Amino acid sequence: MGFVTLLLLLTVFTGCRTSPAPPAPSPRPGSTLGAVVVVDMIPASLSGEENQDSEPFLSVHPTDPRKMAASAFTPNPEGTASGFAPVFVSEDDGNTWSLRNIVPSAGPVGTGDITHASTGGTAAALYAGILRIPGNLLLNELRTLDFASSGAMSVQASRSQIDQPFVQAARIGLNDRVYVGSNDFGAAPRTATLDVSLDGGTTWKSVRVEPRDTAGQDGPSVRPTVARDGTVYAAYFGWRSFDGNVATSDVVVVRDDSAANTFQALVGSDGLPGRLVAQGVSIPWSNGPTLGQERIGSTLSIAVDPNNSSTVYVAWGDRVGTDIYTIHVRRSTDRGISWSADLRVIANATNAALAIANNGTVGLLYQRVDGSGSGSRWETRLEQTRDAFTTTQNAVLASVPADTPAIQFLPYIGDYNYLLAVGDEFRGVFSANNTPDLANFPQGVKYQRRINATSKTLEDASGQSVASSIDPFYFSIPVVR
Amino acid sequence: MGSLRRIACSALSAGILLIPSVTPVSGQTPRHEWLKRCGIVFIGRVVKVGDVSFADVPRSARTVVVRVDEVLEKPAAVSLVKGDKVTVEVKEPSQFRDGARVTFYANGWIFGNGLAVHEVGHEVSPEISPVSEPGASSPRREEFAQVRKELSDAELRSRVQKADMVVVGRVTAIRPQALRPVGAQSNLVLSEHDPDWQEAVVQVESGIKGARDGQEIVIRFPRSLDVAWYRAPKFSLGQEGTFVLQRDTLSGSPKAMLGGAEVDAYVAGSRQDVLPKNEAPRVRALVGS
Q1: Do B191 and A89 make contact, defined as CB atoms within 8 angstroms?
Q2: No. of H helices and E strands in chain A?
Q3: For residues A89 and B179, which has the higher predicted lDDT (pLDDT)?
């Protein structure tokens, strides 16, 4: 794309410059993980499937956490004719999953993007933001009052020229508050946007959170997070210039305290809303297989301590030196006013997802390519820390070949995955090569679909071999104390 | 999820030969209509009315557990074999009794440890069925194939009728989109969903609709492997085929440059719109019908 490039005007510096990488954290002594659950989410009745079920997402019923909804680039098993795409539903803490076609979209693998959040309620309310197919970057903001039913989700709002809708929701008082981060090209050149509804999706307001000059647009990822006291933060990439291959970007955090939804509670040293967590980072934009067959260009996550909204963490991906893609993690303990230097740096990694548990333990999920060429592997890892990554407790959830199966489309495993804190568990989803080789899953794994553990192959109902593909995996892991 | 093609089961028994004929409606049987609207067809025996076959399915008076005898059609990804128990949410439960042998035309409802489906239609079968020779051709199999062919022809006829242009031709050049989008889509957008529009210049060998023999045309297509575009038709240099085309309303630029002049640009909306060259006689016949 021929892109308008603007010079970055560094009038004021409010964030922390990229600093030398911190030392790798020490393994946390004296504690061990309890039971870890990893489940291949493809149900037995779809044992013949060979789709690339990438970019998973997860919602948990807040008061009945046995109930969960999940999604991926998973097709309606019967094709697109019905006009509906599936979600995965579990009603037994993630031990089993089934598909129900409730999302109004007719893409070959469901939607063009999908994220969601549950607020529970009398049944199992679920809010979703999708890019509907067919459509031209067509955002649909959806709701169902019970995701476990088979009733179609209803469209609450819709508009075109939107990228990467990212949904968060919470019941505050008697009302569901819904926040949908997106890159709204209709607002160019300041495209970072939050759609906000304080009444369960009945009415919506689009808040343009980017006040600074951009390179013509911001980066795709706009990520909100909601604390129990109603404080809302959002992180986005403020693209300041773009040379066709690399965006020079600020990592910006905005905050709203009072449901006024101006997101102007944080002000930078330049007097404009938003604090710069990092300034002038180089983000490679590669919309082709680049890192273990995956594309790169917009990895971003933010999480607020649910019980102390002054503490907030941000993780993002950029390029440092000769690395392909590097994840950084930083923290603020004063409501986003000041930010640490890098607390954690992970080379050749993507899909960072942060969550903070009730006891303050921070979880960091990411996927990293280990090695190169035919021996390279996608490693999915969850790190937990109680001391800002000075020490961590690590669990490798999967270590699978990175060069097989061959890519069907992009994203290969996802432009994001997801992590949630649920009581004394971290729960999350990731996508990976589904070869039933137990050595690939150091914490163990449960398959619902039919496998032959001896030959380490997938099988259909008649016992015929099924090719390996990318499947979504659910996991639960105890929060360290 | 692999191929979503409907597959005909290899073991159609002669039992289904005895399924009573259904009443023609407007020249077509209800079976035709059901087949248009369903993805799963199987013969089974009702085990229990008002029950379910696995835990995820909500039990009701309309749920019926059926043990599968024969699978006639299903998506490739779906696991369904003889002996499986399926939950069918039927339209009228009073039409079913335990032990009845029924052919169900259905769509998926819940895909879990088992399969639950919604009834589209059904035919009650006789109790006694002769056994067919393995591999024997069955009139029912032929009927299904005929129905599928009719549906395929009807879909293609509809696409051809809606098409702005249908040609048999050969791709002589591939190039990036020459004209930028105009109007509402003129803002440059950098998204992972960028289609990366390309243009295939096609020499028309035979114009079937809206084109002359020997004419050059421009077909625009997305090169992107992104999830939103990877299933869209891609064109390559030297490719020959029968192309069913619409004027381009997708890329934001309805015109293309050809020989220094602006011409209409076209797109092929789906893979079904890019047919082998030898499908041209079939397409011509449908245009004439």
Answers
A1: no
A2: 0, 35
A3: A89
Q: What is the mean pLDDT of chain A?
A: 93
Nearest CA-CA partner of A457 in A99, A50, A73: A50
Mean pLDDT, rounded, for A104-132: 95
Residues B12 and B28: beta-carbon distance below 8 Å: no
Q: What is the pLDDT of residue B29?
A: 76
Token pair belonging to B183: 């109007």
Q: Are A273 and A209 in contact (CB under 8 A)?
A: yes
| Chain B residues within 8 Å of chain A (Cβ atoms) | 1-2, 4, 39-40, 55-56, 75-81, 84, 107-115, 185, 187-194, 196, 224-228, 230-231, 250
- CA separation for the pair A426, A89 (Å, rounded): 18
Residues of chain B with CATH 2.40.50.120: 158-183+193-288
What's the first-to-final CA gap in chain A, in angstroms? 49
pLDDT of residue B30: 86
Percent of chain A with pLDDT over 70: 94
Say whether the ipTM exceeds 0.95: no
Could you give all domains of chain A from N- to C-terminal order, each with its CATH number?
26-51+172-478 (2.120.10), 52-160 (no CATH)
pLDDT at B224 over 90: yes
Residue A454: per-residue pLDDT: 96
Q: Taking CB atoms and an 8 Å cutoff, what residues of chain B touch A53?
A: 1
Tell me the β-bridge partners of B8: B73
Whole-model pTM: value is 0.91
Whether the CB-CB separation of B87 and B62 falls below 8 Å is answered with no
| Residue A190 · residue A167 · CB < 8 Å | no
pLDDT of residue B180: 64
List of chain A residues whose C-beta atoms are within 8 Å of the C-beta of residue B193? 112, 131, 137, 163
CATH among 3.40.50.410, 2.40.50.120, 3.40.50.720, 3.20.20.70 for B158-183+193-288: 2.40.50.120
A418 in Cβ contact with A56 (< 8 Å): yes
Given pLDDT bands bounded at 50, 70 and 90, which one contains residue A21?
low
The encoded tokens of residue A455 equal 């030959």
Strands lying side by side in the sheet with A349-356? A26-27, A391-401, A377-385, A362-370, A349-356
Say how far apart CA B131 and CA B143 lie, in whole Å.
19
For the ranges A117-126, B13-22, B76-85, which has the lowest average pLDDT?
Answer: B13-22
Tokens of A212: 């600074």
CATH number of B6-144: 2.40.50
Per the CB < 8 A criterion, the answer to whether B125 and B43 are in contact is yes
pLDDT in tens, B182-199: 554 445 578 999 999 999
Q: Do A97 and B1 touch (CB under 8 A)?
A: no
Share of chain A residues as helix, strand and coil, in percent rounded to the nearest 5:
0, 50, 50
Burial call B39-58: b when 16+ CB within 10 Å, e when fewer? bbbbbbbbebbeebbbebbe
User: Helix, strand or coil for residue A113?
Assistant: strand
- Please indicate whether, in this complex, the C-beta atoms of B189 and A288 are within 8 angstroms of each other: no
Of B81, B189, B192, Cβ closest to residue A297: B192
Q: Average the pLDDT over each of A218-232, A406-420, B141-155, B226-240 and give the range with the smallest value.
A: B141-155
pLDDT of residue A29 exceeding 90: no
B71: pLDDT strictly greater than 80: yes
Q: At residue B276, what is the residue type?
A: P
Partners of A242 on chain B (C-beta within 8 Å) are 190
Residue A392, C-beta contacts closer than 8 angstroms, at least 6 positions apart: A25, A26, A27, A28, A383, A384, A385
Does the bond joining A43 to the residue before it have cis omega, within 30 degrees of 0? no
Task: Compute the distance between CA of residue B233 and CA of residue B163 in angstroms, rounded to an integer.
Answer: 16
